[in-house]
Specification:
binds serine; alpha/beta; Rossmann fold; six-stranded parallel β-sheet
């Protein structure tokens, strides 16, 4: 439990990670101490679980007013444009991802916030980075605007920590898989969509080729990693850019095989699109030795355990949808 009484603002709370992270933070800090905010409407799963404000992080003045008005002491900044959507409008992705972060870091400095969380991504790595067990420190030459914005963002976090003492912490998330809220325009989204499509239609048209291995993680592990990093003593945090963390690594063929243990007739078709080039530029697996050493990171889910849990939860939702009584 935190020693100080904290009041948290989550920006981008209606997104894939935001919903689950907000609920987890509310469990830890108390419902009224976690203010959810987003540009879009409140996600139905957040309704009646705590305060919600409609907020555009690009409007720095309004953001600053909310931080002061609500007595905010920590910000979790999740709003961003992800890899696939970013390639459709690179200028917008750069502007939103960079300016949003700089607005938050500036306000954190001015208001002396206790902590800031901002996620980076495996997308910082590019074609020249090692493909297997990609280390924390290595050649980093991202080829997507999303990856460039995340890498630049990591150095802004490092700068605000060293220059102004802002306690900002970050993780390079792998592709995240969840059943509660839909993903928002990433290259790894196939590994989320596939489960619902398998249940609804017993088939899936995959936009990546069958042997494309990528680093992935089940959402409960990602949420736990985030809370563990944020609760770690400041003196344990040796990385002020962003930590590599690893969960699992699999290809579309392997996730299809794991789904077939539940649905033997499940059929997967492959038709690679422009997202294939993005996936090919990223590592296949990640070395997370430093996160393990600094704050004890350890994943709990492998591919089959995740698939079993996804089907358990999606089946419950389907049954409730069909029979609301
Ligand atoms: P998402 O697209 O699902 O959610 C982002 C949310 O931000 C959306 O609800 C959107 O409405 C909101 N938003 C956009 N512009 C905003 C603005 N101007 N002001 C306020 N809110 C705004 O994204 P996500 O998957 O939840 O990702 C959250 C963070 O984690 C991002 O920084 C992303 O880069 C990072 N990340 C995600 C993954 C993944 O697999 N989901 C992997 C690596 C890193
Ligand atoms: N899941 C994210 C994406 O595909 C990785 O940051 O964009």
């Amino acid at each position: 439990m935190p020693l100080r009484k904290d009041k948290i603002l989550v920006i981008g709370a209606s997104g894939q990670i935001g919903v689950e992270l907000t609920l987890a933070l509310r469990k830890q800090y108390g419902n009224n101490n976690v203010v959810a905010s987003d540009l879009r409407e409140e996600n139905p799963l957040l309704k009646d679980t705590g305060p919600y404000v409609s907020l555009d992080m690009m409007n720095k003045e309004m953001l600053h007013v909310q931080v002061i008005r609500q007595n905010i002491t920590q910000i979790y900044l999740l709003a961003a444009i992800l890899s696939a959507t970013g390639e459709k409008n690179p200028n917008l992705a750069w502007h939103l991802n960079m300016q949003g972060l700089l607005n938050v870091l500036d306000i954190a400095r001015e208001e002396k916030l206790h902590k800031v969380y901002w996620p980076s991504s495996i997308a910082v790595f590019g074609p020249s980075s090692p493909k297997i067990n990609c280390p924390q420190q290595t050649i980093i030459e991202p080829s997507t605007v999303y990856g460039i914005s995340k890498y630049a963002g990591e150095f802004w976090c490092n700068y605000y920590f060293n220059r102004y003492g802002v306690d900002v912490r970050s993780i390079r998330y792998p592709g995240l898989i969840s059943y509660k809220s839909a993903p928002g325009g990433g290259t790894t989204d196939y590994a989320v969509e596939i489960y619902q499509e398998a249940l609804d239609h017993n088939k899936y048209n995959c936009f990546l080729s069958e042997n494309t291995y990528l680093p992935m993680m089940y959402m409960p592990d990602a949420i736990r990693a985030t809370l563990e990093l944020m609760n770690a003593p400041a003196e344990n945090i040796s990385i002020r850019t962003a930590y590599n963390i690893s969960g699992m690594s699999f290809s579309p063929r392997e996730i299809a095989e794991s789904i077939q243990t539940h649905l033997p007739d499940f059929n997967m078709l492959y038709k690679a699109d422009s997202r294939q080039a993005i996936a090919d530029s990223w590592p296949q697996s990640i070395d997370d030795t430093v996160a393990k050493k600094d704050w004890g990171w350890k994943p709990q889910y492998d591919l089959q355990k995740m698939t079993d849990d996804m089907f358990n939860n999606l089946n419950v939702t389907k049954t409730l949808d069909q029979d609301p009584s």
